[in-house]
Design a protein that fits this description.
The protein has a 5-stranded mixed beta sheet. The chain is built from 13 helices and 43 strands. Among the domains are: 31-58, no CATH class; 192-363, Sandwich (Immunoglobulin-like), CATH 2.60.40.2550; 496-556, no CATH class; 638-694, no CATH class. The protein is of the alpha+beta class.
Length: 796
């Protein structure tokens, strides 16, 4: 948002304790502030300066953010992994169309080596993706990671566009040998990291202040603690954590007095000091938070009049600037009507526009997609039809069009250690530095204290933890160097003298192995460079795009090279960059899974591995390469088989050399052949034998070079999720069906009434199933909903 279109609100709510003799002066100030508001669009105005200052550095931030929704959390080898990628504008959370390519990797956590990496096409901000979980993968934890040219940079920032998954050879053995539980607190006397965070950033002598605190153990897990604040060794305040190792207390610090905190949970009464107390300064406090506005109190150590400015920004966009005259203290009210949901950074500036205090506050918590799921029944039979209706509304209960992803799966495949949602990802994890513990707690409406707990979280993180804080944005200036690109570059180099002088009328023909595919022509510039665009890669889904030089002189020869270092660059950087993943535990399904274990059919027998042996043949992934290999064989050998005798390279029957030997066939041959007198008469040989014929073999790179071709992988193609439909007879007498993922639909769009209806069938697994719906609207609102149902065995 540019300074010319930014909206400013000048707040002029004065504290109610103003005396009556100052009312005339108060009205004068209000009038003055109204004039300042009218002139706020001037280029030299203070609001414009505060806006432009932030805008200048917010450009350093990645302009896209990626979220991955998967069909479930645990996969068995040999299964399909379905995922949906959301590529959103990092400021407004609307769909981004800047990047056209999503680079995806499945990474084994211990070795940090990718076991899968492919390009996927981004269509209007979404990716409908699929990965085959190869049966060679070992049991363990894996990370699904995604990158775009506008979200991944060569910097020290952690990679947050990730999803934690578990891969197991067998789900039964996994649950028998490993049980995911809530992290337990360690015994008393353990080492604790205890930190204090004054509201606004610092303490000022004589001004009552709120202080947040956070306690974690050596593993980074939250620790429940209680303790006492001492002033000059006299107890003045008790404190106790209220949520996830965090809490707050208030007191009035005095410069020169000694303060320390002792925690009750420690065997050794270790004193923890408090932050330094300033003798003078300003304190910023949140004193009111309603649906429509937030109210802050600005306090200072002296009663002299001073001009201050309060700036409110969300994800690098300024939504409010207030100007006020403060004597001792002042209330400033900020309207929330036009702000989006998310973390807002509130910064207090003095008259010289220097920041003096800052505070994070979460605004418009209810500005989200409300997704209602309605099942036609609460319990179903095996191979039964399920009818599901979705209703999506906004915060005003108005229907809204949304793009949703739906997955329905056996609860045994829920990864309890993964509590990431589209809301926690975009509103918390990507906005705050460091790891968060169970961020889903703050978006679960069942937790009545979630908003208060979220405010404590933001206080205990400290405003410097905000990714969009101005100092953090300044430090990210070096991030402007891109690592990835939507295009792939190539180069033509002269192979003979005839080609050296050719600078114009050069093209590269792009085509696929599919005979029905149309041929595309790519322009080559004067130095021989060309670019393979996303529309070219799109033509080669699940295959290769072949590139062949076309020159205006047929006698000219040029080598073609392809520069495609994307995944090599990614692999080099992920060794240095950490994965930014919150420490989570999915409490949403924990109790139900523990109390009602999953059901495994006893009548399912898995066959032991069957090994089929046969003749080893050379197999190419692409049929076109097989064709090139056959042509190369004919071109590289002069061997033949005698038509009449079947002898390899028979000198007697050498007039017809059209019959070529067959790969792998045994042939008789003779050596030292010599005519005694003349051709057709007696002859002698020095030896003979038999051999299994083998053509000269070229590697794929050698084949491409021989035919002067370049090759690049296209976008990985889509695969349709196969949803079974049963009739009445099949429900009883049909084949066994043990699908654990009943339904996957990544591209649901609600109608103008905000509704969508879905039908799918259950399998033969009689257990509890979980449904998860997530999505985004066109204006950047996010939402998520879960539902459950039970399937019982059908009576025969």
């Amino acid at each position: 948002m540019s300074s010319s279109t930014a909206k400013y609100w000048i707040s002029h709510e004065i504290e109610l304790r103003v005396s009556s003799r100052n009312l005339v002066y108060l009205f004068f100030i209000i009038a003055l502030l109204s004039i300042l508001n009218a002139n706020s669009q001037d280029k030299d105005s203070v609001p414009d300066l505060l806006v432009s200052k932030l805008e200048a550095v917010s450009k350093n931030k990645a302009i896209e953010s990626v979220y991955l929704q998967t069909s479930k959390g645990i996969y068995e080898t040999g299964e399909d992994l379905w995922f949906k990628g959301y590529v959103l504008d990092s400021r407004y959370l609307t769909l981004s169309e800047k990047s056209k390519t999503l680079y995806v990797q499945l990474i084994e956590d211990i070795s940090k080596k990718p076991v899968w990496e492919e390009r996927y096409e981004i269509e209007y901000g979404f990716v409908d993706g699929h990965i085959y979980v190869h049966d060679s993968l070992q049991d363990g934890n894996y990370t699904l990671a995604a990158y775009t040219p506008h979200s991944f940079f060569n910097d020290g920032q952690p990679i947050k566009s990730v999803r934690q998954l578990r891969i197991a050879k067998n789900i039964t053995s996994y649950h028998q040998t490993k049980k995911d539980t809530v992290p337990t607190e360690e015994s008393k006397g353990e080492k604790i990291d205890f930190q204090l965070f004054p509201e606004g950033g610092h303490l000022v002598s004589g001004i009552q202040s709120k202080v947040a605190f956070k306690a974690v153990n050596a593993n980074g897990s939250p620790k429940t603690v209680s303790g006492t604040l001492f002033e000059n060794n006299i107890s003045i305040k008790t404190l106790k954590t209220s949520h996830a190792g965090m809490g707050t207390f208030t007191f009035t610090p005095v410069k020169g007095n000694h303060y320390h905190i002792e925690l009750d949970s420690l065997t050794t009464k270790k004193p923890y000091g408090i932050p330094d107390i300033k003798s003078k300064g300003q304190v910023l406090q949140l004193v009111g938070h309603t649906k429509d506005n937030v109210t802050f109190k600005v306090s200072k150590h002296t009663a002299d009049k001073e001009t201050v400015y309060l700036r409110v920004q969300v994800r690098g966009v300024v939504y409010s600037i207030a100007r006020a005259e403060v004597e001792k203290e002042r209330l400033i009210k900020i309207p929330l009507k036009d702000m989006p949901q998310g973390i807002a950074e509130v910064t207090l500036f003095n008259k010289d526009l220097e920041p003096t205090a800052e505070r994070l506050v979460y605004v418009n918590h209810d500005q989200r997609l409300n997704i209602k799921t309605i099942l036609d029944k609460g319990e179903y039979l095996t191979k039964d039809k399920v009818q599901l209706k979705l209703k999506v509304t906004d915060q005003n209960n108005q229907p809204i069009v949304a793009h949703l992803g739906l997955s329905v799966f056996d609860r045994a495949y829920q990864n309890l250690k993964d509590g990431k949602t589209i809301e926690t990802h975009y509103h918390l994890s990507t906005q705050l530095k460091g790891k968060l513990y169970n961020p889903g707690y703050y978006f679960n409406e069942k937790n009545k204290n979630r908003k208060e707990a979220l405010d404590v979280l933001l206080l205990a993180q400290g405003w410097r933890a905000y990714e969009w804080a101005e100092p953090n944005l300044i430090q990210e200036r070096e991030k402007t160097h891109p690592v990835l690109n939507d295009t792939v570059t190539g180069k033509l180099c002269a192979k003979n003298k005839k080609a050296q002088g050719i600078l114009t009328d050069q093209y590269v023909m792009a085509f696929t192995a599919d005979k029905q595919s149309s041929k595309m022509f790519i322009d080559v510039d004067s130095v021989g460079s060309f670019k393979v665009l996303p529309e070219h890669l799109q033509q080669a889904k699940r295959g290769y795009l072949y590139l062949k030089p076309l020159l205006n002189d047929p006698k000219a020869k040029k080598d073609i090279t392809i520069e495609d270092p994307s995944f090599a660059r990614i692999n080099g950087l992920i060794k240095q960059k950490p994965f930014g993943y919150s420490q989570t535990f999915n409490e949403e399904f924990q109790i139900k899974i523990d109390l009602r274990p999953f059901v495994v059919a006893n009548d399912v027998n898995k066959l032991d591995e069957v090994v089929v042996s046969g003749k080893k043949q050379r197999v190419f992934r692409d049929k076109y390469m097989g064709t090139l290999d056959s042509l190369a064989k004919l071109d590289m050998t002069t061997d033949y088989v005698g038509v009449q005798c079947g002898v390899l390279n028979c000198p007697i029957h050498d007039l017809d050399k059209s019959k070529k030997p067959i790969e792998g066939k045994r042939y008789y041959y003779e050596t030292g052949f010599k005519w005694v007198n003349e051709r057709g008469g007696p002859y002698t040989i020095s030896g003979s034998g038999q051999l299994v014929y083998s053509y000269p073999q070229l590697e794929e790179s050698e084949l491409l070079k021989k035919f002067n071709l370049g090759r690049i992988k296209g976008y990985y193609g889509k695969k349709e999720f196969y949803a079974l439909v049963y009739d009445a007879l099949e429900q009883v007498d049909g084949f066994p069906d043990y699908r654990n993922t009943l339904y996957w639909k990544p591209d649901m769009i609600t109608n103008e009434k905000g509704e969508a209806e879905i039908e799918f069938y259950t399998s033969d697994i009689n257990t509890g199933f979980i449904g998860i719906v997530e999505g985004v609207s066109g204006n950047g609102q996010l939402g998520r909903q879960t539902f459950e149902f039970r399937v019982r065995k059908r009576e025969q």
